[in-house]
């Protein structure tokens, strides 16, 4: 050892029940520190609400409307857009909060643009089942991989060259009657 002694944390004695409390005459009483914290929380609650709205607005600003039109009508979704290689690499991994009509659009695919190519996706680190919709350059659906298995590392292939991919919450394609050759449309103003 280097001669330094380790300082051990002292265990609180009976009268020291922890920060903000004291034991007197068998009763627990709040100290001024706890009351001050309580007043701070009450006064700042309106500020937290404003920040939450700002965060919600920021998420909405990053989503776009996507419509899928086919024999069973038109269905609208509000989805996040993954444009870069990093965004597409992360996709919806670790997410459990995918809205009923939400998801993610990978456009362009591949992220740098270029010629359409066959896509291979997997569900590693993805705890929520997804419908993966592979989209041709003419924006028709090439293939739908329905209700993919969470956390699976099995490759899910498009089967043909595609220029974009749409991930929706698992089961939505079947529920809405979305099928191959349906038309997918969106306007991405952030390009």
Brief digest:
The chain has helices spanning 32-61, 85-90, 172-176, and strands spanning 21-24, 27-30, 63-70, 73-82, 103-106, 117-121, 130-135, 141-145, 156-162, 164-169, 183-186. The chain is an alpha+beta fold and 191 residues long.
Structure write-up:
This protein is an alpha+beta fold. The chain has 2 domains: 21-59, no CATH class; 63-186, Protein of unknown function DUF192 (Jelly Rolls), CATH 2.60.120. It contains 3 helices and 11 strands. The model is unreliable at 1-31 and 34-61 (pLDDT under 50).
Supply database-style keywords.
191 residues; alpha+beta; Jelly Rolls; seven-stranded mixed β-sheet
Note the run of SSEs as H and E.
EEHEEHEEEEEEHE
For the record, what is the CATH homologous superfamily label of the largest domain? Protein of unknown function DUF192
> Helix amount, in percent?
10-25%
Number of β-strand runs: 11
Distance between the termini: 60 Å
* Share of residues in strands: 25-35%
Rg, Å, rounded: 26 Å
Architecture per CATH nomenclature, i.e. the level-2 architecture of the largest domain: Sandwich
What is the fold-level CATH name, i.e. the topology of the largest domain? Jelly Rolls
* Biggest sheet character: 7 strands, mixed
Number of domain units? 2
CATH class designation of the largest domain:
Mainly Beta
Anisotropy-based shape: globular
The oligomeric state is: single chain
Output mean pLDDT. Answer: 78
Task: Give the class from helix and strand content and strand pairing.
Answer: alpha+beta
- Stretches where pLDDT is under 50 for at least 5 consecutive residues are 1-31, 34-61
Q: Strand order of the main beta sheet, please?
A: 8-7-10-5-4-3-11
The DSSP helix count reads 3
């Amino acid at each position: 050892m280097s001669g330094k002694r380790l300082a051990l944390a002292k265990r609180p004695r009976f009268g020291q029940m922890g920060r903000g409390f004291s034991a007197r005459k068998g009763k627990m009483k709040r100290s001024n520190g706890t009351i001050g914290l309580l007043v701070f929380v009450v006064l700042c609650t309106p500020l937290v609400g404003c920040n939450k709205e700002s965060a919600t607005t920021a998420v909405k600003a990053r989503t776009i409307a996507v419509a899928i039109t086919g024999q069973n009508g038109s269905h609208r979704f509000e989805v996040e857009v993954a444009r870069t290689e990093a965004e597409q690499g992360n996709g919806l991994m670790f997410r459990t909060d995918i809205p009923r009509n939400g998801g993610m659009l990978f456009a362009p695919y591949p992220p740098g643009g270029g010629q359409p190519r066959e896509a291979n996706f997997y569900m590693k680190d993805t705890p929520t089942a997804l419908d993966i919709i592979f989209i041709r350059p003419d924006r028709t659906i090439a293939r739908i991989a329905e209700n993919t298995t969470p956390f699976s590392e099995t490759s899910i292939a498009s089967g043909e060259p595609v220029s974009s991919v749409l991930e929706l919450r698992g089961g939505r394609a079947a529920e809405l009657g979305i099928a191959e050759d349906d038309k997918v449309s969106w306007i991405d103003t952030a390009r």
